[in-house]
Here is the input.
Amino acid sequence: MLRTYFEKELEKLKIDMTRMGALVEEAMGQMLIALKNQDIQIAERIISGDDEVDFMEKKIEKQCLVLLARQQPLAVDLRAISAALKIITELERIGDHAADIAEITMKMAGVKYMKPLVDIPIMIGLTVVMVNRAIDAYVRQDVELALNVCASDREVNELYLKVLLELINTMKRDSQTIDQAMNLVFIAKYLEKMGDHATNIAEWVIYNVTGVHNSGKKVFAQ
Amino acid sequence: MKKTKLSEKLIYLAIYLSAALSLTAMLAIIGYIVFKGAPIVDWTFLTSPYKGAEHGIYPMIVTTLYMIVVSLAVSAPIGICSAIYLNEYAKAGKLVRIIRFATDSLSGIPSIIYGLFGYMFFVTALQLKMSILSGSLTLAIMVLPLVIRTTEEALKTVPMAYREGSLALGASKISTIFRIVLPSAAQGIITAIILSTGRIVGETAAVYLTAGMVTRVPGGIMESGRTLAVHLYVLAKEGISFEQAYASATVLLVIIAVLNILAVRLASGIRKRMLGN
Amino acid sequence: MQTCFVKPIITVNNLDLFYGTHQALKNVSLPVTVNEVAALIGPSGCGKSTFLKTINRMNDLVAGVTIRGQVLFHEQDIYCSSCDVVELRKRVGMVFQKPNPFPMSIFDNVAYGPRVHGTKKKAELERIVESSLRKAALWDEVKDRLKNNALGLSGGQQQRLCIARVLAVEPEVILMDEPTSALDPLSTLKIEDLTQELKEQYTIVIVTHNMQQAGRISDKTVFFLNGEIVEAGDTESIFNKPADKRTEDYITGRFG
Here is the structure.
């Protein structure tokens, strides 16, 4: 087979992408625990762990650019590398949002929750699964799985609206709850965006396999 | 290491000596002839007839020139066109092989046989009598294989790429041959002519059987005459005058040299005009 | 954007070509649209150059070639018995892999075609030569030495001269058989730029071994394999996601 060197480089790329995905998934898992238990130490670890995610993004980005310049990839190789470039951006943002949520967790740490968190943990669960599946879809080049992720985003969005409404009503009833409620609103918003990013990853996976990138946004009338 | 150096030196010496030998032989022959003959060559010698007391070679010069012109006039067009056919048109096959075999065989036949054939066919059968025409036609047949072969080689040196380029521009095959192939092969074709001229001028047996040995200035190609080469032969064979033989030989050499120089000039002139600056 | 359906300038229908008993082209069909650059790609010996030469009947020069099928130029079969090959080759010009300027001056090279086709007036020839050399982006480099021998030009210049030579007979289609494979990268790029300019007036069909070149200059790409067309489509699709795996393997260099 030809281009063995190039094949090896593509393999390395895949391995690094998988590692970055694993880091992000771990951060999200830890985020859930930190939030539930209001654990400052775990939160701190998440925040410092984000450095490694950022590092991976830079590393993979460099790898991709070098491959583009030196190997002149076409067709499936080109799609794989350009998809990788886009996916690492999305992953990095997910990592950032996890760190943001960890920060807010630390801010809220002193005060007990008004009521037990129900929907937010569900949202976290959903988004973790979405990210997990999106990365899986990339590794296995699985279009079905990717479409599944895109479909799941609706549920996350609906949950977000539910949480938002609930928190707004809570704030309207009792102005003492505003501090905590606002923080929870931010957390919910970050989670909703993480869902969006996971969906974007899935869309790029579909592009990688089929050559068609459907961002699902409205088409502007020409 | 030393041993190989020695053998290399020896080989170099052998090659050098061979070249020196060839050069020396040529210079010796030419030198001896010119040395012996030049003193006799003067204006009178060149312009007087060969009659009675006068021993000029003017008639022989005229006859020789006639022969060259007529032979070339016959053999060059036929030879060049044949070469064009063989190289540009003929498809490799039985016919081509037969033609090649024929031309190759022709070049191996001794000139006396050409002389006999010329006598039988041109002089007797076609009733051309002993004449410059008979002689020229005989010589033309003799040099034909040479012209064909040399022209073919010249045509072969023209790259296919030129022909393809020309045809791809919408030129016909004939156009391509006349505008590109022949001009490019001009030098080679001129070489063919030079080689033929050499052969024509040097022939004796084929000539005196067909063109005769009369020493008068021929009035036209239907008359017979004696060429320089034949004259030389007669002078030497009959022991008439070796001095005159050397002188005639000197003139012959000069004619050949002049013709060669003219031909080379012509070839390079054609080349310059075609190539541009 | 297709506003109306334009009939292709060249249509090949079910073309088979045999060198003796060996079949070099199998059932090849292809339309070529006017003013497009169509690139023919494929591994060595797959038939792309052979196919190119059927379009201007240069295959006629090869002994033992038989052809079945149709090659239509402006909807006329060019292999009909009464067809004028000379006229065809005037309208369908060809540039070869190795530049082949004639051993004459630059001027005479470009003027060769028009002279062969009957143009005699000096002023007319000069006009044609200048215009062709300008179109071939060579005029500025040679305008002061038109009488010089063409063989003194560099490889890239010689090739542009050959292009000018073709342009001088005012063809409609220009066939290029790996025109830059013998040239240095800079000359290659100059000629690639030239194809982009020329395609506004002419239709270009180019055989190339260089994938990136096909990607850079062509509107349509045709992938040949073992004498057949595996896939033909617009270059963007072929280079982004070809329909056939063999095409993908070839352009990604997984087999050569």
